[in-house]
Design a protein that fits this description.
The protein is mainly alpha-helical and 200 residues long. The chain has 5 helices and 6 strands, in the order ααββααββββα. It has helices spanning 8-18, 32-52, 85-105, 110-122, 182-196; strands spanning 58-60, 66-68, 126-129, 137-138, 144-145, 159-162. The protein has a two-stranded antiparallel sheet with strand order 1-2. It has a two-stranded antiparallel ribbon with strand order 3-6. A hairpin with a 5-residue loop joins β4 and β5. α1 runs parallel beside α4. The two termini are 26 Å apart.
């Protein structure tokens, strides 16, 4: 299990800065494009959770029948609705409350799952050589290898992370990206719980 301090908000600052997203130093309502992006991200994650629960978002038709609309809906900007900074913060906090509640209802400790997702997210950035800017590759384990071999630059190089984007601005995952292994994290928590459970 992880021994790292659980600091989710600070981890997201690291992630956002790595991926060249603005992090404000004082409270201020984000611009319209950022609000739309955040609304879409929150909505997409909420829909993923709905699906994971074996549920669907439904809408009643004119005949009163319900039909699933999960894949037919999207978030768009509405010029007739004024943003409300207080409600923006309230919505974020409420999501944290219900998200932590959902984890608690499932008996999952957030920290080790958080650490695994953060590790995976950070692996989307491309590792480059600090000396020659060559893209590094993953070795047989977790180590990064220089294309010119271990002795490149007399071994006096380190990995720096960079963001690669398509022309439309979408981030491209690094070849060293590795998805979050939450199945492993959950299994470790189950085994840890069994190990400390009192024997009857």
């Amino acid at each position: 299990m992880t021994t790292k301090d659980y600091r989710p908000q600070e981890d997201i600052v690291t992630l956002m800065r790595q991926f060249e997203q603005e992090v404000k130093s004082a409270p201020e309502l984000p611009d319209a494009a950022t609000r739309l992006l955040r609304a879409r991200l929150v909505f997409e994650e909420a829909l993923e959770f709905v699906r994971a629960c074996g549920c669907a978002v439904a809408m009643s038709g004119p005949d009163g029948a319900k039909r699933a609309v999960t894949d037919d809906i999207s978030v768009v900007a509405d010029p007739n609705v004024m943003p409300d900074f207080t409600e923006y913060v309230d919505g974020c906090i409420d999501q944290l409350v219900v998200t932590y509640g959902a984890l608690n209802a499932a008996g999952v400790k957030a920290q080790s799952a958080w650490d695994e997702v953060q590790r995976s997210n950070m692996s989307k950035a491309w590792p480059h050589c600090s000396v020659c800017d060559a893209v590094l590759v993953r070795g047989s384990g977790d180590e990064l290898i220089h294309a010119e071999g271990a002795d490149a630059h007399s071994g006096n190089w380190s990995a720096i992370l960079k963001v690669h984007k398509r022309e439309d601005g979408k981030f491209i995952k690094a070849p060293t990206y590795s998805p979050a292994d939450l199945k492993r994290v959950i299994q470790e928590q189950i085994e840890e719980t069994r190990a400390i459970a009192p024997r009857a």
